[in-house]
Amino acid sequence: MKTIYWFCYRLWQKCFVCFFAYRVIGKEKLVTDGPVLIASNHESFLDPPLVGIAYEQEVYYLARKTLFRGFGAWLYPRLNSIPVDQERPDMTSLKTIIKLLRQGNQVVVFPEGARTLDGKLQKAEAGTGLIVAKSKAVVQPVRIFGARKALPRGSSKMNFCPITLVVGDPISFTPEELKAKGRDDYQKISDKIMAEIAKLEM
Fold first, then answer.
1. pTM more than 0.85
2. What is the DSSP string of 78-144?
3. Catalytic residue set
4. What domains can you pick out in the chain, each with its CATH number?
5. What is the DSSP code string of 156-190?
6. Does the keyword Transferase apply (predicted)?
């Protein structure tokens, strides 16, 4: 499984640099030790690997449950993908993420839940706040620029344009914030994460 992951990692890395002039701004800010929840805006289907290749170690991702069919049922687990049912969301995927974080892994999440239609940041979902409260993981905000232009939602046409990933400073939460209980408290954490993502600029 590791061989498949790193083969795809290197392939994505070369393709993004070659065809999209991919670059990372603020790479020195990346937290690479211990559990890290990597929170990114969501512009395109390209986003998961765009975030993943910024790291030198393996990271885990969420992927639509419908992708785990046929060849995808073999491939996606080997790419560290966690199936999530967007039509009937439940706690299964959230529990998996929390477990992975408690084991010291890095996990990519998109707090908005769905790709943007107009390029604007959307409101975060409360689930991200729940993950933070339960795992106590470091939150690493990142923001993608250019992926929507490269492959917008609803399109199958690829446009070769520059893509940049901007890395922000890790987000600190107070002990009181991490004692969050209930949807409103989780939402406040998610909103704070989205606010930090919104601050990131090229």
1. yes
2. HTTEEEE-SSS--SHHHHHHHHHHHTT-EEEE-TT-S--SSSS--PPPHHHHHHHHHH--EEEEEEE
3. 42
4. 2-199 (3.40.1130.10)
5. --------EEEEPPPBP--TTGGG--SHHHHHHHH
6. yes
Q: Token pair for residue 73?
A: 């049922």
- Asked if residues 148 and 116 have their Cβ atoms less than 8 Å apart, the reply is yes
Query: What's the angle, vertex CA 168, arms to CA 135 and CA 21, rounded to 5?
Result: 120
Q: How many CB atoms lie within 10 A of CB 72?
A: 16
Distance CA 68, CA 73 (A): 4
Q: What is the pLDDT of residues 77-134, one digit of tens each?
A: 999 999 988 666 678 889 999 999 999 999 999 999 999 999 999 999 999 999 999 9
SS3 148: helix
Euclidean distance between CA atoms 63 and 83, whole angstroms: 5
Which amino acid, one-letter code, is at 166?
V
Q: What is the pLDDT of residue 91?
A: 82
Q: Which of 39-53, 81-95, 129-143, 179-193 has the lowest mean pLDDT?
A: 81-95
